[in-house]
Amino acid sequence: NKKAFVELLFWKSPAAVNEMTKGYSSLQEGEGTTRSRVPPWTPQEEQELRELYWKYKELEGGDIIAAILSHLPTPGRTRRQVVKQLVRM
Question: What gap in Å lies between CA 36 and CA 39, rounded to an integer?
């Protein structure tokens, strides 16, 4: 690839560097970025999140996301994941 030197001008993640050195199809399914390791939200989890949001959205002076996280039945969800899913919904 004669234009590979252009790729060296920009910061890369470790997964991108691995692809550059070993070939662009070298990553196997499930490897690479952490985004691929985040479990998707099921419809039941989305419904529960929606119900918890409507329950705690009028919380005065409190942290809505912290209240939702404490009552979310699925453990292991991070604050960032919950906020991102609420924005997406």
Answer: 8
CA 71, CA 52: separation in Å to the nearest integer?
A: 8
Q: What total number of domains does the chain contain?
A: 1
pLDDT at 81 > cutoff 80: yes
Q: What is the Cα Rg of the chain in Å?
A: 19
Inter-residue contact 64 to 56 (CB < 8 Å): yes
Quick check: is 61 in a domain? yes
How much is the pTM? 0.56
Residue carrying structure tokens 């994941």: 81
Residue 34 to residue 74: CA distance in whole angstroms: 19
* Burial call 36-54: b when 16+ CB within 10 Å, e when fewer: eeeeebeeebeebbeebbe
